[in-house]
C-alpha cells in the first residue's frame, strides 16, 4: 500500500512537472556570435533583423540587416516575410531581440534565432560591423 501511494505521488509530481514544462516550450534559440554568423551565411531564406531604433541602426549594424524596430507595428512590418523564413534577430545586448522573438513566435513564426549578447557580443568577437561609427573617419583634406 505504501509503495502504491509513493508511486502514485511520483506519477502526479512527474506529470505536473511535464505539464508545467509545456508552457516554457522553446520559442526561439539563442546562439553565440559564431553560430549566428554561420546561420547568416548558410541558411536559405534567412532574414537578418535589427530590432533597435533607427538612430542606433545608423551608427553601427551587422551588414545586410534590415532595421525593423520593436514597436507596435513590428509584427505587421514582418508580415511580408513568409512564415517559414529563418528569422535572425539582434539588438544591442539581446533584451529587445528576445522580446521580438517571443512576439514573433506568438504570431506563428517558428524558425527564430536570437544573437545571444547582441551586437556587443558580436563586436567582442571582432566580427564585422558597418555604419558611421564602424567606418573610419578619413578627412577630405589635411590641414
Topology:
Layout lengths: L1 H21 L6 E3 L1 H10 L3 E5 L3 H6 L6 E2 L6 H5 L7 E5 L4 H12 L5 E4 L2 H7 L19
Distance between the termini: 94 Å
Tell me the Rg in angstroms. Answer: 21 Å
Q: State the shape.
A: globular
Helix content: 40-55%
In total, the number of strands is 5
Number of helices: 6
- Give the ordered list of helices and strands: HEHEHEHEHEH
**Proportion in β-strands:** 5-15%
Biggest β-sheet strands, sense, barrel: 5 strands, parallel
Order of strands across the main sheet: 1-5-4-2-3
The structural class is alpha/beta
Any overview of this molecule?
Helices cover about 45% and strands about 15% of the residues. The chain has helices at about 1-20, 35-40, 55-60, 75-80, 95-105, 120-125; strands at about 30, 45-50, 65, 85-90, 110-115. It is built from 6 helices and 5 strands. The chain is α/β, with parallel strands linked by helices. Strand 2 (about 45-50), helix 3 and strand 3 form a beta-alpha-beta unit. Residues about 5-25 and about 135-143 have low confidence and may be disordered. The chain has a 5-stranded parallel beta sheet, with helices on both faces.
What's the gist of this structure?
The protein has 143 residues and is α/β, with parallel strands linked by helices. The protein is 43% helix and 13% strand.
Amino acid at each position: 500500500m505504501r509503495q502504491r501511494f509513493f508511486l502514485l505521488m511520483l506519477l502526479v509530481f512527474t506529470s505536473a512537472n511535464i505539464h508545467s514544462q509545456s508552457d516554457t516550450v522553446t520559442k526561439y534559440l539563442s546562439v553565440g556570435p559564431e553560430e549566428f554568423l554561420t546561420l547568416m551565411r548558410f541558411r536559405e531564406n534567412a532574414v537578418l533583423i535589427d530590432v533597435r531604433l533607427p538612430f542606433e541602426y545608423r551608427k553601427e549594424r551587422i551588414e545586410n540587416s534590415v532595421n525593423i524596430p520593436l514597436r507596435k507595428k513590428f509584427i505587421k512590418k514582418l508580415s511580408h516575410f513568409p512564415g517559414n523564413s529563418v528569422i535572425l534577430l539582434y539588438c544591442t545586448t539581446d533584451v529587445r531581440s528576445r522580446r521580438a522573438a517571443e512576439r514573433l513566435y506568438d504570431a506563428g513564426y517558428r524558425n527564430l534565432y536570437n544573437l545571444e549578447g547582441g551586437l556587443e557580443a558580436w563586436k567582442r568577437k571582432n566580427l564585422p560591423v558597418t555604419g558611421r561609427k564602424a567606418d573610419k573617419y578619413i578627412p577630405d583634406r589635411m590641414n
